[in-house]
Amino acid sequence: MNRMEFLKLAVATATVPMPRAAEMFEPREDARAGKRVAAILFDGFVLFDARSIAKRAEAVFPGKGEEFATRLRVRQFEYTWLRTVGQRYVDFWHVTQNALDFVLANMGLSLSAEKRAWFMQGLRELEVWPDVPEALEALHKRGIKMAFLSDFSAEMIDANLERLKLRQYFEAHLTTDRVRQYKPSPVAYQMGPDAFGLKKEEMVFAAFGAWDAAGAKWFGYPTVWVNRFGVTEEELDVHPDLVTRDIAGLLRFVGVGD
């Protein structure tokens, strides 16, 4: 294994660990059985395809796109956590700009102003996972309210939803800009009960990241981890109520579909 192969493996292992065992994808006991689900709160990347960012990175840095996108994702979330603890909040667009500058310097790369603007615009032009439109329609028909509870700014979410023609399915966005604390702060998760006037037990949180699934469970939400990349569960003494590789598992969890 040469140095570059080792570096790629180290970065991937730090951010996208291998599953411990296949059984991690088996449903846990269904905590929603016989209970009413009034609303679902979504992390953004449950619906938006995170691979869109890697594609843009590959376009500007051929052969390095996946590594670049992984490093950027790690630094984005490290900065959100540091800014929350340090009480130095800026919105996620600003966080991403800071993370981008760091990763460029760290990897010895550069972007022209034009290419930088094009790359950043990718956060407003994300693709949607293929199973999402049909799932949203099914949930909407069942009368389940839906909202983003996301680190993304409202402007970023709206830009994506308008382009994808999915805006009609969602209530007002519960972006962390409202409370100026990023997830997994309980102040961020509290936006759900406050906005809907519901108990935690009447809502379901759909997480994309393992850390977000843990944070939602700490807060007390029934939690479905839509683990699309098959990564390892965090060791934080809590477990999501269901781990699923796609959104179909979420539909079954709330009693919609097969």
What can you tell me about this protein's structure?
There is one protein chain. The protein is of the alpha/beta class and 258 residues long. It has two domains: 22-49 and 127-253, HAD superfamily/HAD-like (Rossmann fold), CATH 3.40.50; 51-124, DNA polymerase, domain 1 (Orthogonal Bundle), CATH 1.10.150. It has helices spanning 3-15, 44-47, 51-60, 65-85, 92-107, 113-121, 132-141, 154-164, 186-189, 191-196, 210-219, 247-253, and strands at residues 39-42, 48-49, 127-128, 145-150, 174-175, 203-207, 223-226, 242-244. The strands form two sheets. Strands 5-4-1-6-7-8 form a six-stranded parallel β-sheet, sandwiched between helices. Strands 2-3 form a two-stranded antiparallel sheet.
Concise structural overview:
The chain has helices spanning 3-15, 44-47, 51-60, 65-85, 92-107, 113-121, 132-141, 154-164, 186-189, 191-196, 210-219, 247-253, and strands at 39-42, 48-49, 127-128, 145-150, 174-175, 203-207, 223-226, 242-244. The chain has 258 residues and is α/β, with parallel strands linked by helices.
> Could you name the ranges where pLDDT drops below 50 across 5 or more consecutive residues?
1-31
Structural class: alpha/beta
Order of helices and strands: HEHEHHHHEHEHEHHEHEEH
How many domains? 2
- Anisotropy-based shape: globular
What's the pLDDT, averaged over the residues? Answer: 89
**Counting H and I runs of at least 4 residues, what is the number of helices?**
12
